[in-house]
């Protein structure tokens, strides 16, 4: 993993090293989950908008 040496230096005598690595790992995992969640929401909104548009177009065609 990148940044290993800097994380080792942060720990006092090597005791805090593992907790730092775990913390960074968890932070990126939660960050990644949030990012994917936001992207999924945007994709879903776009998909719903497409459905609504096609539905409205169908109604317009029927009313003609």
Count of discrete domains: 1
Measured between the Cα atoms of the first and last residue, the distance is: 63 Å
List the helices and strands in order. HH
Structural class: mainly alpha
Number of helices: 2
Could you say which overall geometry the principal axes of the C-alpha atoms support? rod-shaped
Q: Approximately how much beta-strand content do the residues carry?
A: under 5%
Total strands: 0
Spans of 5+ residues with little confidence (pLDDT < 50)? none
Q: Report the mean per-residue pLDDT as an integer.
A: 77
Main beta sheet, described?
Answer: none
SSE topology:
Layout: H1 4-10, H2 17-63
Features:
64 residues; mainly alpha; 84% helix
What is the gist of this entry?
The chain has 64 residues and is mainly α. The chain contains 2 helices and no strands. The protein has one domain.
Please give a structural write-up.
The chain has one domain (4-63). Helices cover 84% and strands 0% of the residues. It contains 2 helices and no strands. It is rod-shaped. It has 64 residues and is an all-alpha fold.
